UniProtKB/TrEMBL annotation, chain A:
Coiled coil: 163-190
Domain (Multidrug resistance protein MdtA-like barrel-sandwich hybrid): residue spans on this chain: 71-217
Gene3D superfamilies cross-referenced by the UniProt entry: 2.40.30.170, 2.40.50.100, Helix hairpin bin
GO-annotated cellular components: efflux pump complex
Xref: InterPro entries: MdtA-like_BSH (IPR058625)
Entry protein name: HlyD family efflux transporter periplasmic adaptor subunit
Keyword Ribosomal protein carried by entry: no
Domain of life, per lineage: Bacteria
MF annotations from Gene Ontology: efflux transmembrane transporter activity
UniProt-listed Pfam families: BSH_RND
TrEMBL record, chain B:
Keyword presence, Transmembrane helix: yes
Membrane topology of this protein: Multi-pass membrane protein
Subcellular locations according to the entry: Cell membrane
InterPro entries named among the record's database cross-references: ABC-4/HrtB_transporter (IPR051125), ABC3_permease_C (IPR003838), MacB_PCD (IPR025857)
Alphabetical keyword list: Cell membrane, Membrane, Transmembrane, Transmembrane helix, Transport
TM region positions: 16-41, 256-279, 299-330, 342-364
UniProt domain ABC3 transporter permease C-terminal: residue ranges: 259-372
Principal subcellular localisation of the protein: membrane
Protein name stated in the entry: FtsX-like permease family protein
Domain of life: Bacteria
GO cellular component: plasma membrane
The species this protein was found in: Pontixanthobacter luteolus
TrEMBL record, chain C:
Keywords: ATP-binding, Cell inner membrane, Cell membrane, Membrane, Nucleotide-binding, Transport
Gene3D superfamilies: P-loop containing nucleotide triphosphate hydrolases (3.40.50.300)
Pfam families: ABC_tran (PF00005)
Protein name: ATP-binding cassette domain-containing protein
Length: 341, 377, 238
């Protein structure tokens, strides 16, 4: 082996360099290969309690948006075909405004009929009155003749009978008029019942009928014909697990955000807690589901002036809510919140 | 003198390469086996680490790992949300289902249902498609290893599956670390998962929780446990729980422990024998140097630099070999996500130092005990 | 050939050395008193087992005597500390081993320069001195070769160069001619006298090679741990 210094020795020079470079490469590789286990922030904002509630005791619940009147399923008093639909979903209607009409031709025909009957009755009355007048004039003539021989007794009796009969006919004719008038009124009422009107002022939420469809008083159709409710303001019905219910601070405003827009939170005013604790509405939609969780329903009112609330909250939407808890049960968080406010 | 020492070391190539081989081989054996061991164990935690944004996992008190979980009533989510310090909490469902593949085979899959609104619970990265596809009806996202297993050689995109009599369409591939059993994983929305997993009354497997600023995850778990009576674990605790479950329920630790021990013993044997042979061969030279007037301290330095050099090179090559091994197999689904924890090269380094010091010390003792007068015999 | 200003190179007084062999103690040297002058080529002759190796080891400071003292150029070497003794050897004594004990993985010049390197001289400079020394010994052309590429005689010359390169005042030489034929042996002895023995330097040669007895300035015969002869010639019975 030549030992000139410029001669590279594999064992003494190259191998250590290979080892060092290899080590450096290994360090790099290991460093690069370390798994990224850092915690990351969620891409989409999850529902979270903010502000004073963020770090104090609270109760959380999920709920649904509903009209303050609750949802009214409009029905019909009379069966028949829908002839005219006056509203569409989203319309804001005032109380008494027609919503739709059911086929009224039969009712209208009856009105015509009764009108004719009224005319007929009126004619009968006139005829009876004429007859009565004639009979009474005849009778008066006979009565004014003093000579009893001039008028036979039987003629007088006949005239008296005519007069009486004419009175009776007049009464009958009057009674027929009254009957016809009553029938008219009845037909008019029926006509009115064929126009379905808004029971309250509110918003049309859903329309499930089209003109030409048959609406029945028996229902039959599984869907309500028209759903409406007062959406000014909107209410939120929040389900609180019964085990959490004692902790809830009734009367305090709730922090509410719709699903999917958890960063847009609004403060909702307390309305009332329902006196009845009900089984939790199932989320799985499975008929076989057994439910052993009961929930207290608490109502909150969404502020009407909340920015974008119109677009943010819609009836039937699911929301996440945070409600302050009563103090002292868990930690001092609630108390500090009290003093802070 | 150190120059002479290095010359002495590399002078006999056979012994030098024998030494290098011994050290590199045992480094490779220890590092590689420990790496595989640790990675296999961490498969037990992959379900936890795949969820990148949850600080705390809340579960039924009897649940043990991300795959061995007992479901809770759905109101548990609201209970957890009610705990102070919980910034957010989302539902998470993990269930088993059987899926009928196109060939008619039955394959057991894991269904993971993530929060509908935020999709928290999905793996961080996607290989194909985007997480938005879950908003389409009947969408599922399959994990990459599962995709390779279930649809070998074909893209799973658009494939239809039948799950619990429901239709599911694969619309994305997630970049996830497979679980210990390498079960195919289908990610979908929570509401969808409820339909895919054959139902029992309670479905909610976990509640994933993000801690508010200013509260540690550990503190939060205590608070949640106290207030709700559920079991809460931080991400690391829960990951560790998954690892412990594998340790307790499989023979892996014992088997790999034995291999690592064998690697160590083989390493000590090869290195020790070669090194002491090398020193013994050179003992005459060392004796001559001692007679000429080289102090024992200098001799020790010479042996030390010989041991250090051969150790450094051998260790470097061994670690390089491990790195090469891991990177060569990184595309194999079995080794997906395998990495070398930085502690392991340090452990094998310590083992190497120990082996070298031990054998070097034994060899040195021979040199030290050599009487310089022996050179006259 | 002793010069006018001869000084005492080595003086031993009552040097005794015991070796323990199991339970028994074997006394190898029995109170050796002798002086070696500088500028002399001194032979230490004896049968194997006579204790000559032990004596030479003690004289050059690599084996502790059980009793007695050794002065090398006026220094009581066994009164020195270990490190001082090692350093003393490094500065003052050159060794030529029977097996040469060259380092196989470095070239001849570097082998010759080992004492200088051990003294702390930088490698390049030391090697130059080693080459210069090899030149004196007429094998400078082999300076770049490894020991196993050299013949036995060349290796011995390298060993001699190593012993002399740092200009020691005492050179110890163990059986230099044992492996050589008579002619080569004499040439080596000539060489040793030529480059080794200087005015202020003493060369001690351990040997039992009777072919070269006539080349000594002084012959010491050791038998059973005692000096039995001290003179310029060998006694008749050897």
């Amino acid at each position: 082996m030549a030992l000139l210094p410029q001669n590279l020795s594999f064992s003494r020079r190259i191998l250590p360099i290979i080892a060092l470079v290899g080590l450096a490469f290994a360090v790099f590789f290991i460093w690069r290969g370390l798994p990224d286990r850092s915690l990351s922030e969620p891409d989409q904002e999850p529902a979270r309690a903010t502000g004073a509630l963020a770090n104090s005791s609270r109760v959380a619940g999920a709920g649904l948006v509903e009209p303050s009147s609750e949802i009214i399923d409009i029905g019909t008093a009379l069966s028949g075909l829908v002839t005219d639909l006056r509203v569409q979903p989203g319309d804001y209607v005032t109380k008494g405004q027609p919503l739709f009409t059911v086929d009224d031709r039969a009712a209208r025909a009856r009105i015509g009929e009764t009108n004719a009957a009224i005319g007929e009755a009126r004619a009968a009355i006139a005829e009876a009155q004429t007859a009565q007048r004639t009979a009474e004039a005849q009778l008066a003539l006979y009565r004014s003749v003093e000579d009893s021989a001039a008028v036979s007794r039987s003629e007088v009796i006949k005239a008296e009978g005519d007069a009486s009969s004419a009175r009776s006919r007049l009464q009958l004719a009057r009674a027929r008029l009254a009957a016809a008038q009553a029938a008219l009124s009845s037909a008019r009422t029926e006509l009115g019942r064929l126009t379905i009107r808004a029971p309250i002022t509110g918003e049309i939420l859903a329309v499930n009928i089209r003109p030409g469809e048959f609406v029945s008083t028996m229902g039959g159709n599984s869907q309500p014909f028209i759903r409406m409710g007062e959406t000014r303001p909107l209410y939120i019905r929040i389900d609180i697990d019964e085990s959490e219910a004692p902790r809830i601070k009734l009367g305090a405003p709730a922090l509410v955000s719709p699903r999917g827009a958890a960063d847009r939170q609004v403060n909702a005013e307390f309305v009332r807690a329902e006196p009845l604790v009900v089984p939790k509405t199932s989320l799985t939609n499975s008929a076989s589901e057994r439910v052993d969780v009961r929930v207290l329903q608490v109502l909150y009112q969404l502020p009407a002036d909340a920015e974008g609330a119109e677009q943010l909250f819609r009836v039937g939407q699911q929301v996440d809510a945070f409600i302050p808890a009563v103090d002292g049960e868990n930690n001092g968080g609630g108390k500090t919140q009290e003093t802070a406010e | 003198m150190l120059w002479i020492a290095i010359r002495m070391l590399t002078g006999d190539r056979q012994k030098f390469y024998g030494l290098l081989f011994g050290i590199a081989f045992s480094t490779l054996l220890i590092t590689q086996q420990l790496t595989i061991f640790v990675n296999l164990l961490e498969r037990g935690a992959s379900g936890v680490y795949n969820v990148s944004s949850a600080d705390v996992w809340v579960m039924d008190p009897v649940s043990r790992t991300s795959d061995v979980a007992y479901a809770m009533p759905s109101t548990a989510l609201d209970q957890v949300r009610g705990v102070a310090g919980v910034e957010w909490a989302v539902p998470h469902i993990r269930g088993q289902a059987s899926v009928r593949t196109k060939d008619g085979d039955l394959e057991g899959v894991a269904i993971i249902g993530v929060d509908d609104a935020t999709l928290i619970g999905l793996p961080k990265g996607m290989i194909e498609g985007s997480t938005d596809v879950l908003s389409q009806p009947d969408s599922v996202i399959i994990d990459d290893v599962g995709a390779a297993r279930m649809f070998p050689g074909a893209s799973p995109m658009g494939e239809r599956l039948e799950l619990n009599d429901q239709r599911a369409v694969v619309r994305g591939i997630a970049d996830a670390i497979p679980s210990f059993t390498s079960t195919v994983v289908l990610y979908t929305k929570y509401s969808q998962a409820l339909r895919y997993v054959p139902g029992t009354r309670n479905r909610l497997s976990f509640v994933l929780v993000g801690a508010a600023d200013g509260i540690s995850a550990k503190e939060l778990t205590e608070r949640i446990e106290k207030q709700t009576g559920l079991k809460a674990e931080t991400r690391d605790e829960f990951a560790q729980g998954g690892v412990n479950f594998i340790i307790e329920n499989t023979g892996i630790p014992l088997n790999f422990g034995i291999t690592v021990l064998l690697g160590f013993i083989v390493g000590v044997a090869i290195v020790g024998l070669t090194f002491s042979l090398f020193i013994r061969d050179n003992i005459k030279q060392f004796g001559a140097l001692k007679a000429i007037g080289v102090t024992n301290g200098k001799i020790a330095q010479m042996v030390a630099i010989q041991a250090g050099m051969v150790g450094m090179i051998g260790y470097g090559l061994g670690v390089l070999g491990t790195v090469g091994f891991i990177s060569a197999f990184s595309n194999n689904p079995t080794f997906k996500g395998f990495y070398i924890p930085w502690q392991i090269p340090l452990i094998s380094f310590a083992a190497m130092v120990l082996i070298i010091t031990l054998t070097g010390w034994v060899a040195l003792r021979g040199v030290m005990k050599t009487e310089p007068a022996a050179v006259f015999r | 050939m002793s010069g006018q200003n001869t000084t005492t190179a080595i003086r031993t007084r009552g040097v005794t050395r015991d070796f323990s062999a199991g339970q028994n103690t074997i006394t190898v040297l029995h109170g050796i008193d002798l002086e070696v002058q500088s500028g002399e080529l001194t032979y230490l002759v004896g049968e194997s087992g006579s204790g000559k190796t032990t004596l030479i080891s003690i004289m050059c400071g690599i084996l502790w005597p059980t009793q007695g003292e050794v002065e090398v150029f006026g220094t009581d070497i066994y009164a020195l500390s270990d490190t001082e003794l090692v350093n003393f050897r490094l500065q003052n004594i050159g060794f030529i081993f029977q097996q040469y004990n060259l380092i196989p993985s470095i070239d001849a010049a570097s082998n010759a320069a080992v004492p200088l390197i051990a003294q702390g001289m930088d490698r390049k400079h030391a090697r130059e001195r080693g080459v210069a020394m090899l030149e004196k010994l007429n094998i400078a052309d082999q300076a770049d070769k490894l020991p196993n590429q050299l013949s036995g005689g060349q290796q011995q010359r390298v060993a001699i160069a190593r012993a002399l390169v740092h200009e020691p005042r005492l050179v110890v030489c163990d059986e230099p001619t044992a492996a050589l034929d008579a002619k080569s042996g004499r040439r080596v002895m000539d060489l040793l006298r030529e480059v080794g023995v200087a005015e202020d330097r003493s060369v001690i040669i351990v040997t039992h090679d009777n072919r070269i007895f006539d080349l000594a300035d002084r012959i010491l015969v050791l038998e059973d741990g005692r000096i039995t002869h001290d003179g310029t010639d060998m006694p008749e019975d050897h």
